[in-house]
C-alpha cells in the first residue's frame, strides 16, 4: 500500500521500528518481538541500529564534554532567586536582567555637557541637602576623611541590587542631560526606586568630573563634593570601585543607614524608607521617568 | 516547592542547562542570562511542577527552550514560528522516509570527531537541539517532545533528519579517509555497508 507521497506503508513502519529500536524506545513486548522478527528477516538492519547507537555515543562524546560555566553564574542565580523569595516578582527580576544586558551593550553614563552637570547637581542637592552635615567616608578607606565611625560591606543581594541601581542611575544621568522635565519631576517626589521595587526614601548620584566636584590634591585619590557649603569626601581607588558600604556614622548622623557605592566616576547613595510603601502616584512618576515597571514594594535585605 | 528544595534540585542541572543555552545562543553572556532567566521562571512556576518522569531536568529544558524563542520573537518585535526563525521549509521530513545510503560502521571514529562537531554546529538550531537532547542529554522522545512542545512524531522526524545529514557528511569522510585500523573494507574500497535496504 502506498501513501499519498508514494511512501510504502510497510517500509514506513519498518523504518520507524528500526529508529525506535536504536533509540531504546521500544516499550512493549509486542514491539520488541516485532523488531526481533524483522531482524530475522533482514539481519543487515542490525548494523543500522548499531550505526545509530555509535552515532549517539559520538555525539555525546563530542558535544557532551565539560562546559566552562561562568564562575559567578551560580551565585548570580542564587541571588536572583533570593530576590524572588523576598517578594520581587520573577518578571521584574528578569526585566532587570534584560535592562542590565541592554545597559552593558549600550552603556553611556556620563553626559559631557555643562547643562547636564547643572541639572544633575540640582537633583543631587535636593536629595541630600538636608542630610549633608558630616563626612561619611570610612576612615579606614584610602582617602577617607577620618571622622566617620564604621562602614562595612553589604553582603548578599545588595551587591546585585547596587549593580542594577547603578545601571538605572546611568540611564537617569542620560535622561537628565536630555530633558529638564525629568529632573523637575524627580525633585518633586521622594525617590522610591520602583525599578528595583525597593522602598527607598532617598536616592542620589553624583558625577565626579562635573564642575562642582574637585580633586583634593592633598590626598591622591580623594574627591570633594561641595553641597550647600558642606564638603563631602569620596575616596576613588580600586578598593572602593563597585563596593557597597552601609554608612554607620555617629549616632545622630542623618546618613546612617544609607548605602553608598561608587562605579567609575559616579557616586550613588540610597536609603530605604523606615516605614511602608510610598504613594502609588510617586511610584508611577518614577516608573515613567526611569522607564521601569511598577510593582510591589520590598524592604532592603 | 520551597526555594531551598528548588535550588537543590534545579541547580544540580545547571551545567547541562548552560550547555544547551550556549548551543542555542552561541554566546557565553547571552547563555548566562538565559540560564538565569530560566531558573527564575522555573522558581516562579515551581508550584505547578508535576513530576512526569525524568525529574526536574526536562522541565528546566522546556523553560529554557521557551525563554530562548520568546527572546527571539521579542527581538523581532512580534511572534514568530520556530520554523520561520530557522528558515525551515514546510516539508518536515518524516522518520519513515528511506534512509540515506551510509555506512557508519566503516568509520574510524577517532578520525571523525572534529568533523562531526563541525557538522553538528552547522545543523539548523531545531535539528541541533533535538540531536543534543537525544545524544548528549540522553532524553527520550517523550521528554524531548515535552520540551519542544511538538508531537513525538515531529521529534522522530527531526532526529531522523539530523542523523541523516550527519551520516551523509560522515560517509563522505569515510570516502576521504578510505581506511580503517582493523582493516575492514570501507565505502571507498567498495564496501556496501548495511545502510540502505531499499
Description of the structure:
The complex is a heterodimer of chains A (301) and B (198). Chain A has 301 residues and is α+β, with helices and mostly antiparallel strands. Chain A is built from nine helices and eight strands. Chain A has helices at residues 9-22, 29-41, 45-63, 73-85, 90-105, 114-128, 157-178, 180-187, 280-290, and strands spanning 150-153, 200-207, 213-216, 222-227, 230-235, 245-248, 259-263, 266-272. A five-stranded antiparallel β-sheet of chain A has the order 1-6-7-8-2. The radius of gyration of chain A is 30 Å and the shape is rod-shaped. The model of chain A is unreliable at 1-9, 92-158, 177-198, 226-230 and 274-301 (pLDDT under 50). The relative contact order of chain B is 0.13. In chain B, α6 packs across α9. Chain B has helices at 3-11, 14-25, 28-44, 57-75, 82-86, 113-122, 125-135, 141-148, 152-177. Chain B has nine helices and no strands. With 198 residues, chain B is mainly α. The interface between A and B is large, with 54 and 59 residues.
Order of helices and strands of chain A: HHHHHHEHHEEEEEEEH
- Poorly predicted ranges of chain A (pLDDT <50, ≥5 residues)? 1-9, 92-158, 177-198, 226-230, 274-301
- The general outline of chain B is globular
Rg of chain B over CA atoms, rounded to whole Å, is 19 Å
- Termini separation of chain A comes to 70 Å
Total helices of chain A: the number is 9
Pairing-aware structural class of the strands and helices of chain B?
mainly alpha
End-to-end C-alpha gap of chain B: 53 Å
| Strand/helix succession of chain B | HHHHHHHHH
Give short descriptive properties of this protein:
heterodimer; A: 301 residues; alpha+beta; five-stranded antiparallel sheet; 9 helices; rod-shaped; disordered N terminus; disordered C terminus; B: mainly alpha
Amino acid at each position: 500500500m502506498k501513501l499519498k507521497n508514494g511512501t510504502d506503508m510497510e517500509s514506513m513502519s519498518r523504518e520507524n521500528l528500526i529508529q525506535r529500536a536504536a533509540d531504546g524506545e521500544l516499550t512493549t513486548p509486542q514491539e520488541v518481538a516485532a523488531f526481533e522478527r524483522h531482524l530475522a528477516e533482514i539481519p543487515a538492519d542490525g548494523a543500522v541500529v548499531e550505526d545509530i547507537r555509535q552515532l549517539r555515543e559520538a555525539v555525546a562524546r563530542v558535544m557532551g564534554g565539560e562546559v566552562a560555566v561562568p564562575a559567578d553564574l551560580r551565585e548570580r542565580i542564587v541571588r536572583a532567586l533570593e530576590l524572588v523569595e523576598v517578594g520581587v516578582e520573577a518578571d521584574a527580576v528578569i526585566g532587570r536582567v534584560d535592562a542590565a544586558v541592554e545597559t552593558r551593550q549600550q552603556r553611556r553614563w556620563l553626559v559631557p555637557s555643562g547643562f547636564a552637570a547643572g541639572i544633575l547637581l540640582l537633583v543631587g542637592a535636593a536629595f541630600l541637602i538636608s542630610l549633608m552635615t558630616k563626612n561619611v567616608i570610612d576612615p579606614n578607606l584610602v582617602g577617607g576623611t577620618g571622622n566617620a565611625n564604621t562602614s562595612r560591606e553589604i553582603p548578599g543581594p545588595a551587591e546585585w541590587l547596587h549593580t542594577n541601581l547603578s545601571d538605572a542611575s546611568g540611564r537617569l544621568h542620560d535622561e537628565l542631560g536630555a530633558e529638564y522635565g525629568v529632573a523637575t519631576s524627580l525633585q518633586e517626589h521622594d525617590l522610591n526606586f520602583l525599578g528595583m521595587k525597593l522602598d527607598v526614601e532617598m536616592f542620589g548620584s553624583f558625577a565626579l568630573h562635573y564642575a562642582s566636584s574637585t580633586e583634593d590634591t592633598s590626598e591622591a585619590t580623594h574627591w570633594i563634593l561641595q553641597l550647600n557649603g558642606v564638603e563631602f569626601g569620596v575616596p576613588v581607588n580600586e578598593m572602593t570601585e563597585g563596593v557597597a558600604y552601609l554608612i554607620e556614622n555617629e549616632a545622630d548622623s542623618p546618613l546612617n543607614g544609607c548605602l553608598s557605592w561608587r562605579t567609575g566616576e559616579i557616586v550613588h547613595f540610597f536609603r530605604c524608607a523606615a516605614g511602608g510603601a510610598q504613594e502609588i502616584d510617586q511610584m508611577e512618576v518614577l516608573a515613567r521617568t526611569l522607564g521601569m515597571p511598577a510593582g510591589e514594594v520590598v524592604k532592603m535585605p | 516547592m520551597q526555594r531551598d528544595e528548588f535550588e537543590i534540585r534545579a541547580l544540580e542541572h545547571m551545567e547541562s542547562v548552560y550547555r544547551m543555552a550556549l548551543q542555542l545562543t552561541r554566546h557565553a553572556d547571552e547563555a548566562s542570562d538565559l540560564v538565569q532567566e530560566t531558573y527564575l521562571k522555573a522558581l516562579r512556576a515551581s508550584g505547578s511542577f508535576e513530576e512526569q518522569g525524568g525529574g526536574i531536568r526536562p522541565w528546566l529544558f522546556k523553560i529554557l527552550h521557551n525563554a530562548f524563542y520568546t527572546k527571539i520573537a521579542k527581538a523581532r518585535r512580534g511572534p514568530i514560528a520556530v520554523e520561520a526563525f530557522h528558515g525551515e521549509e514546510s516539508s518536515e521530513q518524516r522518520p519513515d522516509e528511506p534512509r540515506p545510503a551510509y555506512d557508519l560502521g566503516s568509520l574510524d571514529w577517532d578520525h571523525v570527531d572534529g568533523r562531526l562537531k563541525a557538522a553538528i554546529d552547522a545543523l539548523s538550531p531545531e535539528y541541533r537541539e533535538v540531536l543534543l537532547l537525544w545524544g548528549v542529554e540522553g532524553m527520550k522522545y517523550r521528554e524531548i517532545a515535552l520540551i519542544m512542545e511538538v508531537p513525538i512524531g515531529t521529534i522522530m522526524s527531526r532526529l531522523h533528519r539530523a542523523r541523516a545529514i550527519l551520516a551523509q557528511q560522515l560517509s563522505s569522510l569515510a570516502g576521504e579517509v578510505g581506511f580503517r585500523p582493523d582493516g575492514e573494507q570501507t565505502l571507498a574500497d567498495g564496501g556496501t555497508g548495511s545502510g540502505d535496504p531499499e
